[in-house]
Specification:
Order of helices and strands: EHHHEEEEEEHEHEE
Shape: globular
Number of helices: 5
CATH topology: Aminopeptidase
Number of domains: 1
Helix content: 25-40%
Structural class: alpha+beta
Number of strands: 10
Strand content: 25-35%
Radius of gyration: 16 Å
CATH architecture: 3-Layer(aba) Sandwich
Distance between the termini: 26 Å
CATH class: Alpha Beta
Largest sheet: 5 strands, antiparallel
Amino acid sequence: MELLVPSLEGLDGYADALRRGFWSDNSRREASAREELERIATDPEAFVASLDDPLARGLPIRLPDGSTVPRLPGYRRWIWDGGDYCGFVNFRWQAGTSTLPPYCLGHVGYGVVPWKQQRGYATRALALQLPACRREGLPYVELTTDKDNLASQKVITANGGALVEAFRAERHGKDQLRFRIPLTS
């Protein structure tokens, strides 16, 4: 298993996952998959380029309520194993600080396609992502998950995450847990 920079060569595998019901934005699920498929069909090169934006040059982010907020520096890496698209890991940050704006619930997000879950992909992908997070100079990364998502909680704790707080995410209307993974020794 490896994390790859999104590319045109892997785009068919990613698009196939979207058509099969996978999505990369948990707060907007089906809408985000539909929008990404439209962007892929319209301009595949621009779509792939938009997934690697460490300077936050891309378009603003659309929230579930339809409003937009400034894009943070960040990028997506695709999880691949044996030529198969398995999922993604996202990383976003604010330069010079470990804090995030209220509309961004965590530095790192990930997802594994349903037909590849329960095989350790998310745990390994998060482990592979942490050194890149460290290179941005952050003392820690925060991740959030639904309170009832035990699988995600196990992924985070397997990578050194400790529970920071339980809270109600107004944007999602769900009970969430915030974890922190230290990046300094």
